[in-house]
Structure formats: structure tokens, C-alpha cells
Amino acid sequence: MLMATDEAGRVVKKPSKPAIGRMLANLQRGNAHLVLERAEEDLEGSWYVQVLRRDDNTYQLDFRDGVAAEHYQTRTISQEKVLTAVLGWVAGKADWKDGFMWNTIGSQLRADDAQDQD
Prior knowledge:
This protein is α+β, with helices and mostly antiparallel strands.
């Protein structure tokens, strides 16, 4: 099942395209974070895409494909590009990541996890 959660704590199960668009459009200080997560019994790991509207009005877009090593990040000024990418991810389109330069942040997350365990 797909779930959308924002920083204010609103949760929408099986969100529609218009609901996702509204949640993205409403990102602002104090509610600057949106996560769309796939929660399936037969799907191991964490599968999500998240959006952070930064203080400089850019959008940070992250996604994780199951494991920390497959965690990527990019930034853009275009809310429209973010919405197109997020809706593509939701629909399972193969080309949803196109149009961005992605940086792997998986190794940073593994290092953070290791420090937390010390």
C-alpha cells in the first residue's frame, strides 16, 4: 500500500494524484517534508521517495530502493519537476528519475548508522 505522510503528521493512505499535488504544494516552513512510502508485505526493505522544501526554496528529492546502499538525492528549484518525478515513482514508471543528476548518499547513511550503534 502507498502512504503519504507530511511533517505535520498528516497521513494519507493510497493518495490520489491530486492529493499528492496538494501535499507538495503545501510544503512550507513547519511542514516542509513529504514522504511517499510503499508498504507491502512481500516487499523487503524500505522503499520511499521524500521531498524536503529547503529554506532557500529549493526542493531536495531523495529516494531509497530497499536498502541504505541504494539511497540517492538531488535538488531542484522546480516544484513541477518534483511532482512529475514523484507521480512517476508512484506509478512505477522506469523513467521517473530522468532529468535529474542523482548523488548516492547510501555510504553516508551506513556510516551514520554505524556511529549510532557505537
